[in-house]
């Protein structure tokens, strides 16, 4: 059976670390993308598949790879609020300050969607709260727009310390 990118992406989506290990063990590259530029790592993280993400990182997945829109696995974990995955990615060297096509960062996703545990983790990991998106907004501004008072408080504390 031919191992196609679709099979690898599907295994990542389903969290099938066992299948990914078998594919890698047979010499196939896990460095694939689907039509939107999603990598197995991005898909595993977006779908909260910790074991698959951990294996992919151990197998050499690029932790800072971006999809067609510029989104990273860390952005997906921040958007969804998956603190354990965000920590895994940061410990693997994820850059919290990468920006997607509209200038957004993982910190901005966490602030916008009230993922305040991820927000705290990102700030503790050195994420830059002063980065501006394409509209000139910071993570603080986005938290304010969404009424995320706890996020605003976390970000305001960092703004004063800068």
TrEMBL record:
Keywords: ANK repeat, Repeat. SMART domains: ANK. The keyword Repeat applies. Signal peptide: none annotated. ANK repeats lie at residues 36-68, 69-101, 102-134. It holds the Pfam family Ank_2. InterPro entries: Ankyrin_rpt, Ankyrin_rpt-contain_sf. It comes from the Bacteria. PANTHER family: ANKYRIN REPEAT CONTAINING, ANKYRIN REPEAT DOMAIN-CONTAINING PROTEIN 16. This is Ankyrin repeat domain-containing protein.
